[in-house]
């Protein structure tokens, strides 16, 4: 490492920091210049920070708080999107409804029913899985983390 890249240490600044730290420890606080007083304030602040650990359930409480806040925003967006979808479906139904009803019997032939039943099965399985997760969470069976 090149010596020219290292910052120069200002001896006066260093001494002011040391006097500020000593003043924060309760010694040598009289007639202190402003620069040293600011270092005393910083040293006092650092010395007064709590040294104890956060509460045992701190992380889970913070995560729960964030989850509740995020869920509120998501619910708002979902409602807004569902209202937009309903309005678009209504407008499309008004515009193309008669044509859809005429094309529906042709679309629901024997080849379409396996796919329709598969889609219904997937939606039902997803709903049942979600109900099981919520029930296990209420009973405290879901692992934390």
What does this structure look like?
By secondary structure, the chain is an all-alpha fold. The chain folds into three domains: 11-48, no CATH class; 62-96; 105-140. Helix content is 72%, strand content 0%. The protein has four helices and no strands. Helix 1 crosses helix 2. The longest helix is centred in the middle third of the chain and has 50 residues, at 58-107. The mean pLDDT is 81.
Put simply, the count of helices is 4
The secondary structure category is: mainly alpha
End-to-end Cα distance, whole Å, is: 45 Å
- Tertiary shape: elongated
Question: What is the string of helix and strand elements?
Answer: HHHH
User: Can you count the beta strands?
Assistant: 0
Helix fraction? over 70%
Instruction: Give the biggest beta sheet.
Output: none
Q: Number of domains in the coordinates?
A: 3
Rg: 34 Å
Strand content: under 5%
Write down the overall mean pLDDT.
81
């Amino acid at each position: 490492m090149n010596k020219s890249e290292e910052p120069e240490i200002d001896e006066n600044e260093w001494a002011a920091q040391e006097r500020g730290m000593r003043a924060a420890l309760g010694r040598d606080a009289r007639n202190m210049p402003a620069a040293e007083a600011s270092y005393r304030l910083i040293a006092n602040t650092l010395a007064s920070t709590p040294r104890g650990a956060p509460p045992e359930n701190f992380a889970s409480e913070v995560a729960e708080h964030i989850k509740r806040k995020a869920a509120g925003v998501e619910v708002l967006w979902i409602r807004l999107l569902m209202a937009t979808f309903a309005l678009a479906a209504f407008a499309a139904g008004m515009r193309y409804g008669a044509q859809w009803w005429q094309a529906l019997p042709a679309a629901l032939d024997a080849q379409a029913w396996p796919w329709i039943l598969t889609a219904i099965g997937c939606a039902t399985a997803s709903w049942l899985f979600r109900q099981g997760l919520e029930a296990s969470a209420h009973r405290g069976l879901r692992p934390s983390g």
